[in-house]
Structure formats: structure tokens, C-alpha cells
Amino acid sequence: MSLLDGWVAGEHTADGVTHPVYRRGHGPGVVMIHELPGLTPECIRFGDEIVARGHTVVMPVLFGAPGAPSSPRAIASSLARVCVSREFHAFALGRTSPVAGWLRSLARELHDELGGPGVGAVGMCFTGGFALAMLADAPIAAPVLAQPASPFPVGRRRAADLGLGPADVAAVRAKVDAGCQVLGVRYVDDRAVGTRFETLSRALGSNFLTVDLPGARHATLTEHRDETAVTRVLDFLDEKLGTG
Question: Domains of the chain, with CATH numbers?
């Protein structure tokens, strides 16, 4: 029996780019973006938990084999893909990854279908900052950044960078100033996150909400799951979107 049993497989195309998606549930929409190395069993489990709260969840597959467990080989393969793909800026400073446009299109389609105050967006690890990039130009009402690790924190400047171009930073600030809150979740000694939370706090002020967990682990919602973090994220989605 596959962990994806009960999820409906489909695809979404925007600007000539197509990625598979998996969908399940009823109620307000949430786009849950998997971490490296892909849509692992732990990611699917978390998606099921969002569904159980009364949401429609769409999980895009940006890299990796859906449902495959994490392993050193899988991580290496996905790293190689994101480092050479034109969809991702793994090292660039002050630039928004092109995949953000595809994710914004997916969010718009989901919101057009379901309505409501907006769509939730949960990014994790390498995709953590993509939820913020979606907020810049899509109907996102509940952005969650779980251990955002892009661009890879090679050097002090990259460790602080948000992975957004200047226009998107300005658009995010405008939405946050208008009242949209952003939730960030991390282990405080996680080097992959770098100093991005400090950058976010300066840029977004009191509307940047944080869950700071002790320790140096990484995957707050999945492999190194912390129940406090999981509950806070689920509650945040409920608060901002309502439930079906």
C-alpha cells in the first residue's frame, strides 16, 4: 500500500513548465512544498495532517521520486538537479527562483477554484523561502517558512539572503504591512538556515512570527519533527484560512 493512496495525481503547467501534483481533502487550499530530497514519506504524513484539519492540500513534485524515502543517494541526486536547473537559484544573491512563478500560478488556480481569504503555502528546507516568494504575487494568506535554506548559506551574505529579488522583497513588505503575518519555524542552531530569521525580523517586523526550537537539527516538520512546531503550523493555517 502506497502512502500516496487516497491522493489524486495530476499536473500543473505554467509558462511551458509542467510538474506533477498530488491533491487530497476538502476546504481551504494549502500548497505544501516538499523539502530535499523530495516528497518523502514524512512530507506526505504532514500533508495528511493538514488534510485532517479540514483543508484541501496540493503537493507539487519539483524534484525527486514521489514517496521515496530520504537517503544519501537521493539527497545527492536532488542536490545535483537543483544546482543545475534553470528553475532554481541555489547560490544567487538577491534573486527570485523562476519556479516561484510556477508556484504562484498553482496557488492562483487553487484559490480561483476554492475561494476564501487566500491559500496557505508551506515551504521546507530548500523550498522554505518559496512560500515567501509566492506571497509576493499570489493570493497567499498563510505563508509558512520551515527552516528556509536557500540560497545555500555559503558565506555570510548568502546565509542572510532571502532568495528574493528587490521587487519581490518590496511586494512582500507591502502585504505584511497591510496585515499578512508570516510564520517561520527553525532549530536555532541550524546552520542551513543561516541568519535569515534575523533578516526577516528586520524586514517584516512584528508580523514575522517565529517558532524557535532548541538544538541544531533541521527538518522541523518531518525527519526531525517537533510536535510543538507541527501544532503551531497547523493552528496557523486554521487561524488564517479557516477550515472546511
Answer: 8-241 (3.40.50.1820)
